[in-house]
Each structure stands twice: as structure tokens, then as C-alpha cells.
Design a protein that fits this description.
Distance between the termini: 109 Å
Strand content: 15-25%
Largest sheet: 5 strands, mixed
Number of helices: 13
Number of domains: 3
Strand order of the largest sheet: 3-2-1-4-8
Structural class: alpha+beta
């Protein structure tokens, strides 16, 4: 599935819209802003009003075009390199707030040494620019070309420490690239698209776009990412009159820059001149001329190589592979002596690649001719080329400044506003629910207070009844009343322990009489039972009756019963009853009392 990519071409230092271009599957259309070609913008006024109206008109055209195609999403918005600055910076962290603080400190002269001049250059780019358009210090996106969790990698086996001794104690400064892009016009453009129902998926710069589209190690659909991707330098000739280059690793930009090119003008001589005809001359001739090409000399390639050497020294990495893309414009011209002049002529990919090959030896160099390098890049970025860089349905790494412009990509839109509205509605509903629950708690608390008052009244009545036992206990509350009652209970318990338990004399007497009554011919002559001992004297008819009575008495014991002993005091005379005596004593109590 392919996506839609929009190229946002600006003017006036990046503060005004020049042209927008939509690219998709078998689709390529562009729209030029009124006044971009020199005509007067009617009814729009000058300055900011003209810039804003131009951006809004471009957004309206993009929205209407996408609607006519049945599309409501713009997958990638790519900003051109106009008004963009990329340099290196030393900071404790690539965090966006840390980078902004380091830039402000450097701009005020508070940072000396590594990174200070770069930070001042960024600050100059922020506060400078043409007054036409938006302009102003808050019109830029500033971010590091590094991730907090990204380990330092590089090509050609080159590693340099990014630690700088100028950091404070406990603070280790890192060296990384920083990109500053004017984005006020892009913000208005995104907001206008959002207001018209068009969602913008991701926003990137031209540097991000060429890195993702042309880096051979960039992730492709259906391919596994490389474990240790090499650093690739992508060099593209922008028809706007500059060479745009970016260093990337697996499609993630780590360094970037631009080189302005000299324009070649085509001047037509007057017919009266002896040498009538067309002649290619330098653009600084006094005669009026029409720009028809670009010139890339050896000096331009030398500037590019010097930039790369500086970046390599700062970041500790250099490209293993160089990819050159551009149109075949004006060729180099021979000198009058018949020998080639020492400049490369027009910035054709082969000529640029040849110059870089001589100056940057050891790297693999590829060159590809594209009459429309911007269109080829957008086509690859849309995922409709031979090796689509990022299809619309491909997963992308979120919050990675090496792949996109984070501030613009995360700009709130309709979905965010709807989310906030639903969150507000949810909070209101939750507040209403809390209010209902609170009201119910209040009602329950009132009922609980009523039950507590009833319980207090009942307790007061019970304590009043105990005033006779514990005087004044009803005048106390809570633990004090409980303490007085517990004290009285302990006192009564001690009194109860001091009392002796009564002996079960009647129960024991019943047990003995039942045992005697079960034997015939037995006469009770004497019985004596008190709290200490007991004795029973009997007259039994024979020698077996007495032991039988004893057995029946001892056969029915109970707790605390008296243990008995049976005996015959004397043998009877022939024909007389004999005497039998039962004696016993109560067992001692637990405390040792008899």
C-alpha cells in the first residue's frame, strides 16, 4: 500500500510558502503560491498577511486534492532546506530541552570551547532571517540528531570519544549534530490541513527524506535491518540552487548540510554583433540574463569536503558509501588550449561523484541521474518506487529525531482535541459519580450518627441500672465506665474465691441409703455425716451383705463424693446379726483445705 507525500517548498528564508507538491502512486501534482513568481498578491496585503494567506491557500489546495482522491491522510510532509541550519553541539544530553538550554547559553557567550561557536551559529539562524513572512525567534524547530539510547556508531571503523573535558563535575558532555528548521509556515499549514480533516502522519526535513530514501542500509519492507550499518553520505542536487547532503546510518540522519551553487545564465547577443547566437556566460555579467542552469566547480566540492572533514572530526565517524543524485545540467566546458578546465561544470551526479571520489578516497561512490531528484526522493519516500523507503502502513520509530522533526510530527490535531474533550467528559462524569457517592456517604453518615446516639442512650440506661452496684458509673463515658465496671467485677471475683464450697452431704446420704435399701434384712443403727467425716453403722444378716452394700456405694461415684471404707468390728455369736461399719472423709479442696 502506497502513501501520499507532500513537499513543502518555501521562500524568504523559510518563512513563506513558494510551492507545494503532492506525490503518490501514479500521481504527481504541484501548486504554486500566488506571488511566488513575482506577481502581486491581490487582497492579501504584504508581509505576514500575504505569507499566511499563501500557506492557507496551499493547504486548501492539498485538502481538496486529497479529498478528490478519497484520501484523508497525508503520510509524510517534507520541508525543503530553505532556512535550515545543521551544525554540531556539545551538551550533556540530546534531550530537546537540554539542547535548547545549551544553545541559549552559548548564544549569550556562556559556553566556550567545543560547541560554543556552533551554538552561536544556530542562535544566529534562529533570530535572523528575512522580515517578510513569519520570522521571529519562536518560528524554528530545534532538535538533536541523536537519541538518548543510541550508542555511538560510525563508518570505516573510526571511533572518537564524544566526551569533552569542559563539562562540569558529574556532567559528561556529548558531541552530536543539531538541526534548526524554520517551521512557522509549516505549523500554519498543518493546522489548516487538520481543520479541513486531513491528518498529517509525519513531518521531516529534506535531509531526513534523502537519508530515508537513498541510504542503501535503510530498512525496507520485508527485510531485516542490518546489525552494524555503515554510514552513508547522500548528496542531492536541489534544482533550487544548492547541494543538499546528509550522513545517515540505516536511514537515520546524524549530520547534514547544504552548499550554495553559482547560477549559469543564458544571454542572447544582439543580431548586429559579429558573433551572433547564444553563449553560456557567468551569471554576474552586466547584461540581463535568464538563469538556465547551475555550476558546481572544484571549489564547491572542496567546500563540501571541508565540511565533511569537520563533521568527521567532531562526530568521530565518516561515510563508507557516497550516493550522488541529481539532474544532468550544464556540462563542463573545455579551455581555449584544448585542455579541460579544473572545474566540474554543471552539477551532474557523475561530475559531483568524480570530484568526491578524488577527494574522499576509500569510500564506495554511486551516482544516479534523475532530472527531477526531488520527485524521485518523494516517490521513494511514498513507497511507490523500486525500493520504497517508507510505505504508508510500515511501522516507524516514534520519537526519533534522526527520522523526523519531532515538534511538528507531534503537533496536536483534531484527534488530540477529541481525546482531550473525551478526557474532560470523563472527568466530569467521574466528578458527578464522586458527588453522588459523597452524597450517599453523607446520608449513611447521618444514619450512622443516629444509630450511635441510640446506642449511647441504651448504654446510659444500662449504666444507670448499675449505679446501685457501682455508684456513679452512669456519669462516665467509654473506657472510663468500662474500667470501673471491670474493677468491680474483679473485686467480686476475689470475694467469690474466698468462699468455701458446701459439701454435698444430702447427695452423699442419698447414695448410701439407696445402697442399703437394696439389701434385705439390714438395719441401720447409726449414721453420722458432717462437713468433715461420715460413718454408718449397720446390722447385716450375714457376712456377704456388708461387702455388697459397700460395693453398691462405691459403684456410683460423682465428682467430689466421699470415699468410703467398709469393716466388720467383731464376729457375731451363732444365730445373731453381725455389725458392719462404713467410714469415710471428704477429699481435700484444690487449695489444700480439708
Amino acid at each position: 500500500m502506497s502513501g501520499m507525500v507532500c513537499y513543502f517548498e518555501r521562500a524568504a528564508g523559510g518563512s513563506a510558502l513558494r510551492r507545494v507538491r503532492l506525490v503518490g502512486a501514479a500521481f504527481d501534482r504541484s501548486w504554486t503560491a500566488p506571488g511566488a513568481s513575482g506577481e502581486v498578491v491581490s487582497g492579501a496585503g504584504d508581509g505576514r498577511g500575504a505569507a499566511v494567506s499563501g500557506v492557507r491557500a496551499g493547504a486548501r489546495w492539498v485538502a481538496e486534492t486529497l479529498r478528490s482522491l478519497g484520501v484523508s491522510r497525508l503520510d509524510v510532509l517534507a520541508l525543503d532546506a530553505e532556512g535550515g541550519v545543521c551544525t554540531w553541539l556539545s551538551a550533556p544530553s540530546p534531550d530537546q530541552r537540554m539542547v535548547a538550554a545549551a544553545v541559549q547559553q552559548a548564544a549569550l557567550g556562556g559556553v566556550e570551547g567545543a560547541g560554543g561557536s556552533a551554538a552561536r551559529l544556530i542562535a544566529t539562524g534562529i533570530v535572523g532571517g528575512d522580515s517578510i513572512g513569519f520570522g521571529g525567534e519562536g518560528d524554528v524547530s530545534l532538535q538533536a540528531l541523536a537519541a538518548d539510547d543510541a550508542p555511538p556508531t560510525g563508518g570505516r571503523g573510526l571511533r572518537l570519544s564524544s566526551r569533552r573535558s569542559g563539562a562540569g563535575i558529574g556532567e559528561q558532555r556529548q558531541r552530536f549534530g543539531v538541526i534548526s528548521v524554520r517551521d512557522a509556515a509549516a505549523r500554519v499549514f498543518i493546522d489548516e490541513l487538520d481543520a479541513r480533516g486531513i491528518e498529517v502522519g509525519s513531518v521531516c526535513s529534506t535531509w531526513h527524506a534523502i537519508g530515508a530514501a537513498w541510504d542503501p542500509a535503510a530498512p525496507r519492507p520485508g527485510e531485516e535491518p542490518a546489525d552494524n550499518p555503515a554510514t552513508c553520505a547522500v548528496v542531492m542536487t536541489d534544482p533550487a540552487g544548492r547541494i543538499v547532503w546528509a550522513w545517515s546510518s540505516a536511514g537515520e540522519v546524524v549530520a547534514a548540510g547544504t552548499v550554495r551553487l553559482r547560477h549559469i545564465a543564458h544571454r542572447v547577443q544582439t543580431p548586429a554583433a559579429p558573433q551572433a547566437g547564444a553563449l553560456a556566460v557567468r551569471g554576474d555579467d552586466e547584461a540581463p540574463a535568464e538563469v538556465s542552469g547551475l555550476e558546481c566547480t572544484g571549489a564547491d566540492v572542496g567546500r563540501l569536503v571541508m565540511d565533511w572533514l569537520s563533521w568527521s572530526a567532531q562526530l568521530g565517524r565518516s561515510p563508507d558509501r557516497i550516493v550522488c543524485i541529481g539532474p544532468a545540467t550544464l556540462p563542463g566546458q573545455p579551455a581555449a588550449s584544448g585542455q579541460d578546465v579544473p572545474w566540474l561544470g554543471g552539477p551532474a551526479p557523475m561530475s559531483v561523484a568524480e570530484g568526491l571520489g578524488r577527494a574522499w578516497q576509500g569510500a564506495t561512490i554511486d551516482a544516479a541521474v534523475h532530472e527531477d531528484p526531488i520527485g524521485a526522493t518523494l516517490t521513494r519516500l511514498a513507497g511507490v518506487g523500486p525500493v520504497g523507503a517508507r510505505p504508508a502502513d510500515a511501522a516507524r520509530a516514534d520519537d526519533d529525531p534522526r527520522r523526523e522533526l519531532l515538534t511538528l510530527s507531534a503537533r496536536p490535531g483534531r484527534s488530540d482535541r477529541w481525546m482531550y474533550r473525551w478526557m474532560a467528559a470523563g472527568l466530569l462524569a467521574a466528578g458527578a459519580a464522586v458527588a453522588v457517592v459523597g452524597w450517599r456517604f453523607h446520608q449513611s453518615a447521618s444514619e450512622a450518627r443516629g444509630r450511635v446516639d441510640e446506642a449511647r442512650s441504651a448504654r446510659k440506661a444500662l449504666l444507670t441500672e448499675l449505679d446501685a452496684l457501682v455508684p456513679g458509673v452512669s456519669n462516665y463515658e467509654g473506657a472510663a465506665a468500662i474500667g470501673r465496671l471491670q474493677g468491680k467485677a474483679a473485686e467480686l471475683d476475689q470475694v467469690n474465691k474466698s468462699l468455701r464450697a458446701q459439701r454435698p452431704i444430702l447427695q452423699e446420704l442419698e447414695r448410701v441409703l439407696l445402697a442399703i435399701g437394696a439389701t434385705e434384712g439390714v438395719r441401720l443403727t447409726d449414721i453420722n455425716m458432717n462437713a468433715a467425716v461420715g460413718s454408718v453403722r449397720l446390722r447385716v444378716p450375714d457376712g456377704e451383705a456388708g461387702p455388697a452394700i459397700f460395693d453398691r456405694v462405691t459403684a456410683s461415684p460423682y465428682p467430689g463424693c466421699m470415699p468410703w471404707r467398709g469393716s466388720t468390728p467383731s464376729l457375731p455369736l451363732s444365730g445373731e446379726d453381725r455389725a458392719y461399719v462404713l467410714t469415710g472423709s471428704w477429699p481435700s479442696e484444690a487449695g489444700g483445705r480439708p
